Amino acid sequence: MRRELSAGWRLKVSALLVSSLVGGLLAGGLCGSIGMLCYRLRLMTMAFAMAHAALAGSALALAAGSEATSTAMILALATAMVLGPLADRFGIPLDLMSMILFSTYNALTFIFIVLSPGPALMTESVGQLLWGSILAIRPGYIAALSAAVLASAVFLALFWGRINPILFDPRLAEAEGVNVKLYRYAILLLAGVITTLALRLTGGFLVFSLLYLPAASSLQLQSSMKKLVLSAWAIGSASAAAGLGLSFLLDLPAGSCIAIAAAIIFLGSAAYSRMRAWSGIEGP
Amino acid sequence: MGRYAVELESVSTYYYGEKRPAIRDVSLRIPAGSLALITGPNGAGKTTLLETIIGILRARRGRVRVLGYEVPREAAKVRRMTSYVPQDFMKPPAEPFTAREVAAMGLSSMRPLGQLTKADWNRVDQVLELLGMSECSEKPFGKLSGGQQQKIMIARALVRDPKLLLLDEPFSAVDRESRRLISRRIFPKLLNGGCTILFVSHHPEPDLLEPDIVVELEEGAIRGVAAQGVRASC
């Protein structure tokens, strides 16, 4: 009886590890590649504000006892839609407007957490919201991530020829007749969906590390646009998988472990790039 | 398209938050198939004029009509027939596109989903060869010299086979031999094919460029317009 129970648990743990790995690979890859596009389009601070909108949305759902992902996604996407018009209305740069919203969302997050039922900052759901959890990875979550991967791949494959001139010089692309606003919003909406999904894995405070760090690592290693996006995907996946493994082994928060793994990969790629430069090999 | 490629009537354009217009009360008609030189000191409004014509900047007052279309309402149609070489073209060494890819981007806005055919790539290669840039075509754009980058931007404009070519200080970094090639061989071909060229320069070279019209701007207003030659409109 004791042996059967132990075997059952082993099976459960294995299933949890496999689904964590799959979820991590998908979420990390998505964040890495969309992060690279956001970097090239100078949308990083907007993506940062959207990630915190998703966090505030999740906290609101926690306080209200409603479904977290949809609330987070609504707030993230609404942020993407209103950031530009708000910046225009107040006559301030988009980056500054993003930071204003970021501060507001952080404040709201803490208020919603304090208002959530039970002792604040001590429940498992609050912990999962703030620093992520491998327990968040369930079949429905992997299905949602797979759908996001498919949507991103189709979007990029279909419109790569249109997106390239925008990545090079958005103003010139606009002068040549490309609908720059449409593509920027499409990428921003994609970033909103992806950060909302990744938030469950990494937690709200560290989701942007999967946007920034793989993109920064990729820039150390690659020189063509296509390779930059693909390598950011691979590095994001590797960071998430390594981080989840660490989290499982050391019983530490998933989000922190993923961010640390991504930072270590960045240091490694930066060192590799410098070594290439010293040895006279032309770098990216 | 009528007799004029570009028609501006009492146009004033303001930058966001500015109370003073960057160009004010500008009225101008550029005949189709002509070469117009737009000159004036720094800050005269030359770039603003070009960007108002193409609809990147919106005129707050007046009427802009380009290639028979109202701008900005029908700017998308105008832009498909127009090429623009901006003044600020320099990119850092880490730019992740090759020279050939950058030149080809000129065609992607004119093709369904931005997908280029083999014939499109052949056209890109022909234009690069015409400008003497074939050897640089696979080099990263950001690692080219300023003059080479500028020639790639000109190639990007030419591959589009434009009806209207807007050039903002296009020779600022280009060597004299290339300036001669573009002015003496490429411009006449374009003009004979019915293209209208607006060439912005604060330091024109009379021995290279033979404009049909010279527009002089100062402090956002037209100081003078001189029709210098007679070139048949095609």
CATH domain class of chain A: Mainly Alpha
The overall strand count of chain A is 0
Low-pLDDT sequence parts of chain A: none
**What is the CATH third-level topology name of chain A?**
ABC transporter involved in vitamin B12 uptake, BtuC
| Residue share in helix of chain B | 25-40%
- The shape of chain B is globular
Keywords:
heterodimer, A: about 280 residues, mainly alpha, ABC transporter involved in vitamin B12 uptake, BtuC, 11 helices, globular, B: about 230 residues, alpha/beta, six-stranded mixed beta sheet, four-stranded antiparallel beta sheet, 6 helices, disordered C terminus
Give a brief rundown of this model.
The complex is a heterodimer of chains A (284) and B (234). Chain A has 284 residues and is mainly α.
Element layout with pairings:
The complex is a heterodimer of chains A (284) and B (234).
Chain A: H1 2-40, H2 44-64, H3 68-90, H4 94-115, H5 124-131, H6 139-168, H7 170-175, H8 180-202, H9 209-221, H10 225-250, H11 254-278
Helix pairs in contact in A: 1-6, 1-8, 1-9, 1-10, 2-3, 2-4, 2-5, 2-8, 3-4, 3-8, 5-8, 6-8, 9-10, 9-11, 10-11
Chain B: E1 4-13, E2 23-31, E3 35-39, H1 46-54, E4 59-66, E5 69-71, H2 75-80, E6 82-85, H3 99-108, H4 118-130, H5 146-158, E7 164-168, H6 176-192, E8 196-200, E9 213-218, E10 221-227
Parallel strand pairs in B: 3-8, 3-9, 6-7, 7-8
Antiparallel strand pairs in B: 1-2, 1-4, 4-5, 9-10
Helix pairs in contact in B: 3-4, 3-5
